[in-house]
């Protein structure tokens, strides 16, 4: 048999393959789609005329294109994500493939997908976060024109956050032979692991759709992280037409290298089906060799070593890029989190894109993959509860089958704050979902995030999962761990502190909302159920057996602009008060990925001064008109002590723990009044313009310092790309930070200047942002106002066009600047 290969050529919206050369091909199906953002009658028909529709490439999120409007629910970002969207694509499949199997795979389609091929209805898939595949073979016209049509119908009031809309994840054509490993057909486990040997079991499904019985061979090879074959085995295969059989070859890997947060090495299981001479299928499964244990009273043990979860909850949007998946944007988010000291991600509250897990495997981040935000009981009028009965089992099984080979995944969450907690028999559903997880993956534990306490315990739901999670209940850890010493308790969602980057309101006081629609960054404000990070640090320190915490959230996300907005009953749940507040302030970094002060507070707890000493200082030092008035200054450091200087004069050294900072804490469930935080150092400083500086000390030696100057008026711009060389593949990105500086090069922390962008060369400006959670400027305009001195421009390469991309930024009265990015 020839091997199948392809040459994807996009000519008008046609897509064609040339000769066969590989046993299995996974071809991107992203290019050359037609799109219409409205209802269109008979648009599923192959003869429908779509020539007037817009042409685009996937992944695509139509809602991020805007415009922002108060009429779209601010709770989900104030963007037009609901309505109807049609995608159509005309493509050719060469006649040579007529004996092959061709399937289309969507990594996700937001929401209520209906799919047709050549007038034949393939099926519907409501849940927007799940991947799915349809076999196209019986309906394809080999050697001529085919039309695939997808209708999406996301509903209003269907999400508590910004869901995005469209074919927002990658799309593939999977071309195989009739005898093959079916979709997600392998499951790699490591029954025993020692320093000498790891046993690797590659459970493999084989499906035969040939016309006659087959007698073939199944070869399984393990490649080590360097790609060298370290173990191999072969088995005879006997299948009848239409039969699926499961084989479980077990191999031995000598001196296995462990996948760990500090050493994320991946092995690959290569499954090959041959008839003695020809290869009929070749299926690769990357996996890791690691032990994950949960020891009662001790916590999470990874490869024999205790690891506390320093985690973040993350929604799926990529800020100004919306929900449209992009590998580099995903990687950047996770790199930023890792720099904060994060070692784990909770995919709140839905299955993530495949890219998230691929990157977590590669970077060494542990993951809790979460399935649902609700079960049968509704949180919002058009939530997943509408589909739960019909779809939950399929969706949950598919999530696990898709993700269970990732070493990064350490537990499955069956739900977040599901309202069944309050029901006497809610445990029944919890047990049912837990059993589905065990059925698909007996190697990992199950979890759920409960916010009702003690109801979730009393009603028996907590006991139905292996890892009961408590959301926002630090004061209950001691009680629960004492009462249930065998439980593996998790702080599944914590803090929910809110802040806006670079904003400081004086005097420091707790307020519910502020006329600016921003939140002060002294890290003290949160909704009634929230706690400042410090309280969580303290109670986690007091109950070391708790596995660790997932803070709400790592990044700001679109939607849920708490503390702004509220329920408006007249519009059935729209959150439009306080418009244009339209995105969250919960993140440790803003929507652009620029760190807020809280980023450094977590970093001071989650990183080790011996490896990477750090110190951070707040607020900024531009308080014109406040001369002589007291400004509270906070220092966050992972060192034991720090000293503060104003214009060269020491304002004293302080020791963490001994010198505490009184925080006004007026959160629910907290009746101790002020909280003296041992996690922050503070000084009350009479304001005087000049240089504010801090030095952190370890064993009396200076190990880190940070300083800033009172800035003069804005005079120039600075551009810093996160990467100055990117791949010319039409998808790689460079994130360019724009900073406003004064004449002397000092950062201007209050500058809000309109910056215009121009891109020359083989690149495109695909998004701009500034992290302001109350801005309705378009994410796709070639201009953006800086917000507190910063803005972001995202540049994408053009496919196949190498060369220098130049970004020029101009602003009136400021010296223009440009920067070059090489696309290779
Ligand atoms: C939690 C919820 C999250 C988010 C958060 C905001 O209760 O699980 O999805 O809404 O509150 O504080």
UniProtKB/TrEMBL annotation:
Which Pfam families does the UniProt entry name for this protein? DUF4982, Glyco_hydro2_C5, Glyco_hydro_2, Glyco_hydro_2_C, Glyco_hydro_2_N
Residue limits of the Glycoside hydrolase family 2 catalytic domain? 298-446
Locate the Glycoside hydrolase family domain: which residues? Answer: 717-818
What GO terms describe the biological role, i.e. biological process, of this protein?
A: carbohydrate metabolic process
Q: Which UniProt keywords apply?
A: Glycosidase, Hydrolase
Q: What is the lineage of its organism?
A: Bacteria, Pseudomonadati, Verrucomicrobiota, Verrucomicrobiia, Verrucomicrobiales
By what name is this protein known? Beta-galactosidase
- Spell out the molecular function terms from Gene Ontology: hydrolase activity, hydrolyzing O-glycosyl compounds
- Name all Glycoside hydrolase family 2 immunoglobulin-like beta-sandwich domain ranges: 187-290
Hydrolase: is it a keyword of this entry?
A: yes
Family according to the record: Belongs to the glycosyl hydrolase 2 family.
Q: Locate the Glycosyl hydrolases family 2 sugar binding domain: which residues?
A: 81-163
Please state every residue range assigned to the domain named DUF4982: 628-704
């Amino acid at each position: 048999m020839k091997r199948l290969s392809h040459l994807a050529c996009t000519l008008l919206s046609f897509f064609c393959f040339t000769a066969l050369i590989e046993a299995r091909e996974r071809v991107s199906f992203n290019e050359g789609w037609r799109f219409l953002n409205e209802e269109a009658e008979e648009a599923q028909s192959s003869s429908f005329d779509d020539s007037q529709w817009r042409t685009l490439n996937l992944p695509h999120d139509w809602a991020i294109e805007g415009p922002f409007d108060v009429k779209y629910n601010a709770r989900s970002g104030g963007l037009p994500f609901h309505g109807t969207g049609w995608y159509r694509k005309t493509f050719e499949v060469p006649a040579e493939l007529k004996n092959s199997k061709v399937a289309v795979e969507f990594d996700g389609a937001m929401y209520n997908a209906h799919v047709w091929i050549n007038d034949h209805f393939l099926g519907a898939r409501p849940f927007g976060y799940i991947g799915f595949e349809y076999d196209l073979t019986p309906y394809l016209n080999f050697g001529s024109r085919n039309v695939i049509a997808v209708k999406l119908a996301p509903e209003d009031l269907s999400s508590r956050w910004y869901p995005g809309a469209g074919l927002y994840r990658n799309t593939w054509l999977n071309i195989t032979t009739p005898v093959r490993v079916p979709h997600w057909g392998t499951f790699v486990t490591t029954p025993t692991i020692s320093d000498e040997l790891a046993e690797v079991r590659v459970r493999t499904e084989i499906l035969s759709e040939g016309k006659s019985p087959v007698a073939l061979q199944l070869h399984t090879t393990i490649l080590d992280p360097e790609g060298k074959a370290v173990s191999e085995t072969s088995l005879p295969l006997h299948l009848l037409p239409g039969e699926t059989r499961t084989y479980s070859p077990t191999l031995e890997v000598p001196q296995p290298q462990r996948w760990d947060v500090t050493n994320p090495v991946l092995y690959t299981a290569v499954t090959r089906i041959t008839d003695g001479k020809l290869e009929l299928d070749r299926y690769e499964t990357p996996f890791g060799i690691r032990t994950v244990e949960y020891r009662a009273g001790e916590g999470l043990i990874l490869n024999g070593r205790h690891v506390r979860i320093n985690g973040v909850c993350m929604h799926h949007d990529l800020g100004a890029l919306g929900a449209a998946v992009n590998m580099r944007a995903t990687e950047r988010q996770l790199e930023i989190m890792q720099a904060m000291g994060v070692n784990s991600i909770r995919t709140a509250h839905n299955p993530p894109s495949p890219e998230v897990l691929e990157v977590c495997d590669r970077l060494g981040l542990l993951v809790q993959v979460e399935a649902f935000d609700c079960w049968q009981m509704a949180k919002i009028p058009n939530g997943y509860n509408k589909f739960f009965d019909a779809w939950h089992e399929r969706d949950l099984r598919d999530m696990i089958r898709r993700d269970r080979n990732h070493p990064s995944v350490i537990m499955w969450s069956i739900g977040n704050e599901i309202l069944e907690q309050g029901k006497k028999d809610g445990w029944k559903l919890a047990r049912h979902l837990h059993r589905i997880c065990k059925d698909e993956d007996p190697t990992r534990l199950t979890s759920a995030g409960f916010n009702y306490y003690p109801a979730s315990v009393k009603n028996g739901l907590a006991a139905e999962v292996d890892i009961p999670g408590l959301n926002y209940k630090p004061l209950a850890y001691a009680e629960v761990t004492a009462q249930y010493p065998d439980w593996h308790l998790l702080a599944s969602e914590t803090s929910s502190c809110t802040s806006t980057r670079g904003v400081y309101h004086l005097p420091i006081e707790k307020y519910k909302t502020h006329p600016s629609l921003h939140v002060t960054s002294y890290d003290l404000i949160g909704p009634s159920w929230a706690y400042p990070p410090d309280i969580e640090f303290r109670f986690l320190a007091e109950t070391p057996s708790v596995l660790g915490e997932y803070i709400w959230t790592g990044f700001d996300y679109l939607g849920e602009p708490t503390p702004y907005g509220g329920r408006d009953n007249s519009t059935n749940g729209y959150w439009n008060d306080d418009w244009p507040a339209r995105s969250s302030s919960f993140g440790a970094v803003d929507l652009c990925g620029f760190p807020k002060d809280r980023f450094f507070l977590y970093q001071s707890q989650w990183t080790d001064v011996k490896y990477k000493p750090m110190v951070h200082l707040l607020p900024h030092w531009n308080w014109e008109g406040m001369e002589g008035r007291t400004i509270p200054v906070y220092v966050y450091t992972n060192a034991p002590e720090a000293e503060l200087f104003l214009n060269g004069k020491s304002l004293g050294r302080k020791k963490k723990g001994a010198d505490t900072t009184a925080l006004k804490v007026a959160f629910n469930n907290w009746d101790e009044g002020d909280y003296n935080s041992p996690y922050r150092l503070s000084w009350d400083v009479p304001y005087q313009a000049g240089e504010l500086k801090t030095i952190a000390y370890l064993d009396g030696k200076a190990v880190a310092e940070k300083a800033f100057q009172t800035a003069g008026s804005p005079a120039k711009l600075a551009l810093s790309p996160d990467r100055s060389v990117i791949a010319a593949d039409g998808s790689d990105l460079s994130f360019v930070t724009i900073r406003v500086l004064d004449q002397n090069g000092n950062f201007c922390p209050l500058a809000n200047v309109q910056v215009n962008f121009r891109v020359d060369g083989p690149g495109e400006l695909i998004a701009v942002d500034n992290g302001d959670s109350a801005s309705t400027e378009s994410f796709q305009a070639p201009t953006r106002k800086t917000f507190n001195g910063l803005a972001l421009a995202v540049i994408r390469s053009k496919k196949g066009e190498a060369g220098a991309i130049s970004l020029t930024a101009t602003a009136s009265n400021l010296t223009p600047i440009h920067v070059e990015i090489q696309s290779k």
